[in-house]
Amino acid sequence: MPNETYDLMLIVSAEAEDSRKAEIASEAEALITKGGGTISDRTAWGDRTLAFEIEHESLGVYSLIRFEAPGEVIKPMSRQLNITEGLLRHRVMKAVPGAPVSVAASPAALAPPKESPGQSAPTPPAPSPAPAAEDAAPAEAEAAAAPAAAEPVAVEVPVTAEPVVEEAPAVEEAPVAEAPDAPAEDA
């Protein structure tokens, strides 16, 4: 089976000793290489406030490991990471092709801006027309000479309003008449 590219996000307890934090990352890398994977990049995101407390902790040390490995490696690695002491959370995700590993700003800065209810989503720019045949060669040379730009991590999806469904007003029904009392049968 061919290798896939994955991202492993680790959130280590901020209260752990520095040696233990490095040891947890080393253990994760050892699990990857033991399963036949190769590590292509490591990025330490540093201390960040957690969205909610995990094991009574509100601060975690984030690190991201990008690696290539066969899919069979993921479940055993995840099982082992689940029982690793000092590791608050981990997540293995298939990597987005061309997405950068290092983050200059917080992950929240990469998220698309929130819109107010009255605003509509911006329309994406129209694609530029294709260059003429004689212009194609210089454009290709410029593209080859220019450094490859990183693809965006997330693609903005236009927000569409939900269709308004109008309901018909409830029809009031006449009250049901009670059945007349049946005569009692004498035995």
From TrEMBL:
GO terms for biological process: translation. This is Unannotated protein. Residues 107-121, 131-187 have a biased composition (Low complexity). Transmembrane segments: none annotated. Residues 107-187 are annotated as: Disordered. GO terms for molecular function: small ribosomal subunit rRNA binding; structural constituent of ribosome. HAMAP family: Ribosomal_bS6. InterPro entries: Ribosomal_bS6, Ribosomal_bS6_sf, Ribosomal_S6_plastid/chlpt, Transl_elong_EF1B/ribsomal_bS6. It comes from freshwater metagenome. GO terms for cellular component: cytoplasm; ribosome. Belongs to the bacterial ribosomal protein bS6 family. Pfam families: Ribosomal_S6 (PF01250).
